[in-house]
Write a structure and sequence with these properties.
- With 308 residues, the protein is an alpha/beta fold.
- It folds into 2 domains: 158 residues, HUPs (Rossmann fold), CATH 3.40.50; 120 residues, Beta Barrel (Elongation Factor Tu (Ef-tu), domain 3), CATH 2.40.30.
- 33% of the residues lie in helices and 29% in strands.
- The strands form 4 sheets. Strands 1-4-3-2-5-8 form a 6-stranded parallel β-sheet, sandwiched between helices. It has a 6-stranded antiparallel β-sheet with strand order 11-16-13-14-15-12. A two-stranded antiparallel ribbon has the order 6-7.
- Strand 6 and strand 7 form a beta hairpin.
- Its EC number is 2.7.1.26, 2.7.7.2.
């Protein structure tokens, strides 16, 4: 997917080609987002347009409320997931104070005339313009007056009539309900980071770990032990990961410590991706290294049973 700044688009856009644009934040690119993005691709084919997505940076919640550990996907991860659906163009727009104050009507005019947008795909709960005063139905109304096609995608529901949303995915991850979150995301929630030098306690216990800090922008899973899959260089391995503060040894910072099954490689300074699959148990403080080792062996056996 080609990424272009909004103010540079006109220089690149081929003559007589318009854009069909996906609108939204798309954090996590969950199954409802995917339906919307696929609608964009289909409409782009129908109207001979370029399928695109508007990428706002930073996320409004981070811009106005300075939220930490909020995102399900970094911009890089989001772009990768969206491009896999077939969207060809990402229009990057800085979400600054000036843009946040744009009226709904001016936003629609900006889409139509500045970006050469033929039509848009939005979710049923989409809001836009100053303080989110514009709704999806407003977008359709304003669009009719200027020739902007609007496709509104209805909600997607999972078990118990639950509406899929990024907020609910965040809540599930923070509550340790990782399997529910993954069902909505259609892929395992993951974090990436560079393996840092630890204190060696895991190795001394017979469980050498690859330790990474959880990126400040990403949601922190509930503290505890998980079955995970680890991707590094050209390899993929299963393992168990403790998310927490290492309470047995009075740790302070939240880190992800991953014991990778049957791995003898030195991973220091390598970037790894840790994908979360199942919550095994909550984090707890043990009174001795021996009792911790005993529990880790139980965790390991249980994790392997989940894979069998």
């Amino acid at each position: 997917m080609r990424i272009m700044k909004a103010n540079e688009l006109q220089k690149w856009l081929p003559q007589n080609r318009n854009i069909w644009l996906s609108l939204g934040n798309f954090d996590g690119v969950h199954i409802a987002h995917q339906k919307l993005l696929k609608d964009t691709v289909l409409n782009a084919e129908k109207y001979n347009c370029i399928p695109g997505v508007l990428l706002l940076e930073p996320h409004p919640e981070i811009k106005f409320f300075n939220k930490k550990n909020f995102l399900l996907t970094t911009m890089e991860e989001k772009v990768q997931k969206i491009s896999e659906i077939g969207v060809e163009l990402g229009i990057l727009k800085v979400f600054d104070n000036e843009f946040a104050k744009i009226t709904p009507q001016k936003f629609v005019s900006w889409l139509k005339h500045d970006l050469q947008v033929k039509g848009v795909s939005v979710g049923f709960d989409y809001s836009f313009g100053y303080r989110g005063l514009g709704s999806s139905s407003d977008l359709k109304y304003f669009g009719e007056s200027c020739g902007l096609e609007v496709s509104i995608i209805e909600s997607i529901k999972v078990e118990n009539n639950t509406v899929v949303s990024s907020n609910l995915c965040r809540t599930y991850i923070e509550e340790g309900k990782i399997e529910k979150a993954n069902k909505m995301l259609s892929s395992p929630y993951s974090i990436r980071g560079q393996v840092m030098k630890g204190d060696g306690r895991g190795r001394n216990l017979g469980f050498p770990t690859a330790n990474i800090e959880i990126p400040v922008e990403k949601v922190i899973p509930k503290k505890g032990v998980y079955l995970v899959r680890v991707n590094f260089e050209d390899a993929t391995s299963w393992g168990i990961c403790n998310v927490g503060n290492k309470p047995t040894f009075d740790g302070k910072n939240v880190v992800a410590e991953t014991y990778i099954f049957d791995c003898q490689r030195d991973l220091y300074n390598l970037e790894i991706e840790v994908e979360f699959f199942n919550f095994i148990r909550e984090e707890k403080k043990f009174h001795s290294a021996q009792s911790l080792t005993h529990q880790l062996n139980k965790d390991l056996n249980y994790a392997r049973s989940l894979l069998s």
